Amino acid sequence: MSSLRPVLLALAVLFLTAVASPATAQGPKYHRVSSDHAVLVAKEVLVQQGFEIIGVEEEETRLTIYYRHGDRGYGRGRGRPEKLVIRRVQNTVVFEQAPTSVMVDIEVKLGVS
Q: CB under 8 Å, gap of 24 or more: what pairs does 23-28 form?
């Protein structure tokens, strides 16, 4: 029984590192769509997931969508402001700083995934 314990511990550590590694390895996502379409889809997905759009800021090659959680009920108010950055690189669009759940829905709506 005591010789089985280290093996189980090693398997548990291996399983936990394998599960945790994909979440940390995610980087920016590149898509071949127009920037206007990308902004519309991103805003639509954020609103569908219960976020409130605070504003959109446009720079030369970057679009930044500021958002926060809508009214969360029970007197907890609204969430803190966050941002989703959309960069234009040649004829592709790069999504940066987006939560995983939002990115999955954006990719499904864009037909990329």
A: 23/100, 26/100, 28/87, 28/94, 28/95, 28/96
